[in-house]
Design brief:
heterodimer, A: about 130 residues, mainly alpha, 5 helices, rod-shaped, B: about 250 residues, two-stranded antiparallel sheet, about 65% helix
Chain lengths: ~130, ~250
C-alpha cells in the first residue's frame, strides 16, 4: 500500500504529502489494538462468565467419565471380563475427568491473569498455595 | 411443525422429513428440516462472504469490513493458540466457526430449526477435528506423536497408569467439545420455550393473566442471553479446535 513513487514526488516538491508522516501514523495505529483483537479480548473475557465456566468444566468432567465407562464396556464385551474392565476404566475415567478439569481451570486462570480488568477468580479459602 | 403439542418444549427439536429420498438398507433417507437449515447456513455464509468481498476495495466498505473482521478474528484465535504454523488449518477453523455461528443465529429466529441442537451434528463436527488431529499428528510427527500421552517427569512405576489416564483424557475431547455446544444450545432453547409456554398458559388461565408479564420479561432477557451464547459457543468451539490442533503440531507438552 505504501507507494514509493508518491514518497519521491513529495520529496521533490518539498511539500509534506500524503505519505510524509506515514511511518508515525502506522506506529500509532499499531499501538492501538486492532478491532478484531479487541473483539477477541472481549470474547475471552465473556468466556469467563460463570455460565461459560461451569459448562466448560462440567462437560470436560462428564465426557471423560463417559468415555472411560464406554471403553470398559467395550473391553468387557470383547474379552468377556465382565465386570472388571468397566469398574477399572470407569475409575480411570474419573481420574481423567479430574485431570481435564484441573487443566481447563489452570488455562482459565492463566487467561484471567492476562486480562488487566478481569474479575479475580474466586479461590478456595483453605488452599495454601 | 403441525403435529404434537406446540407448547411442549422438546417439540422444537423434532426432525421432519421434507423430501423423502427412499430407503437404503432399511434406513429412511430423506431431506429433513435439519438438512434444509444446514443448506441455509452454508448458503448464508457463502452469500455473505462472496457479496462482501466482491468489491475488493482497498478502503473497505461496511460489509467488506465485517468479512475482514471475521477473518482477522479467527486468524487471531489460531495465532494465539496454535502459533503461526497453525495458520495452515485456517480454512478448517474458519469454516467450523462460521458454520456454528450461522447455524446458531438461524436458530434464534422463531419457528426456525437449530441445527446445532442435535448432538449428531456437533459430534460430527468434533470428530472431524479429532480425526484431523490424529491423522495430521501421525503424518507430521510419526510415532513421536505418541509422546503426547507420556508426560515427562513421572516415575516409572506409575507411568502406565498415567498414560492410560492421558489416553482417556484425549479420547474424551471430541465428546466434551460436542457436548458443550449441543448442551448450551439445546438447554437455552428449552428454557426459552418453557418461559414462552408459561406466558401462553397464564394468558389462557383467565384471572391469572396479569402474572404473564413475569415469564414474558424473562423470555425477553433470555433471548438476549441466547444471542450471546450463540456467538460465544462458536468462539469456544473454534478456540478448542485450534488448541487440539496445536497438540498435533507440537506434541509433548
Amino acid at each position: 500500500m505504501t507507494d514509493p513513487r508518491e514518497t519521491k514526488r513529495t520529496q521533490r516538491d518539498g511539500k509534506p504529502g500524503f505519505t510524509s508522516d506515514l511511518a508515525a501514523r502506522i506506529k500509532r495505529a499499531q499501538g492501538e489494538d486492532s478491532p478484531a483483537q479487541a473483539a477477541a479480548d472481549r470474547m475471552r473475557q465473556r468466556e469467563m462468565t460463570g455460565l461459560g465456566r461451569g459448562f466448560r468444566l462440567g462437560s470436560e468432567f462428564v465426557a471423560a467419565v463417559v468415555v472411560g465407562a464406554a471403553l470398559g464396556w467395550g473391553i468387557d464385551r470383547l474379552f468377556g471380563t465382565t465386570p472388571w474392565g468397566m469398574i477399572i476404566l470407569l475409575l480411570l475415567g474419573f481420574a481423567a475427568g479430574v485431570l481435564n478439569v484441573v487443566r481447563a481451570a489452570a488455562e482459565m486462570n492463566a487467561e484471567a491473569a492476562k486480562l488487566p480488568m478481569a474479575p479475580s477468580v474466586p479461590d478456595d479459602e483453605d488452599e495454601d498455595k | 411443525m403441525a403435529t404434537g403439542n406446540p407448547i411442549e418444549p422438546i417439540h422444537q427439536f423434532e426432525i421432519v422429513d421434507i423430501l423423502p429420498l427412499g430407503n437404503i438398507g432399511g434406513a429412511n433417507i430423506a431431506f429433513t428440516n435439519s438438512g434444509l437449515f444446514m443448506v441455509l447456513t452454508v448458503a448464508a455464509i457463502g452469500a455473505f462472504l462472496i457479496f462482501s468481498s466482491a468489491q475488493r476495495a482497498i478502503v473497505p466498505g461496511r460489509w467488506q469490513l465485517l468479512a475482514e473482521m471475521s477473518h482477522e478474528f479467527v486468524a487471531n484465535i489460531i495465532r494465539s493458540t496454535a502459533g503461526s504454523e497453525g495458520m495452515k488449518f485456517f480454512p478448517l477453523i474458519f469454516s467450523l466457526f462460521m458454520f456454528v455461528l450461522f447455524a446458531n443465529l438461524w436458530g434464534m429466529i422463531p419457528y426456525f430449526f437449530t441445527v446445532t441442537s442435535h448432538i449428531v451434528i456437533t459430534m460430527a463436527l468434533a470428530l472431524l477435528v479429532f480425526g484431523t488431529v490424529i491423522i495430521y499428528g501421525f503424518w507430521r510427527n510419526g510415532f513421536k506423536f505418541l509422546k503426547l500421552f507420556v508426560p515427562t517427569g513421572v516415575p516409572m512405576y506409575i507411568l502406565p497408569l498415567v498414560t492410560l489416564i492421558e489416553v482417556i483424557s484425549f479420547l474424551s475431547r471430541p465428546l466434551s467439545l460436542s457436548l458443550r455446544l449441543f448442551g448450551n444450545i439445546m438447554a437455552g432453547h428449552i428454557v426459552l420455550k418453557v418461559f414462552g409456554g408459561m406466558v401462553v398458559a397464564l394468558l389462557a388461565a383467565g384471572g391469572w393473566a396479569a402474572l404473564a408479564i413475569g415469564p414474558f420479561v424473562m423470555a425477553v432477557a433470555i433471548t438476549g442471553l441466547e444471542f450471546l451464547v450463540a456467538a460465544l459457543q462458536a468462539y469456544v468451539f473454534a478456540v478448542l479446535a485450534s488448541m487440539y490442533l496445536n497438540d498435533a503440531i507440537h506434541p509433548g507438552h
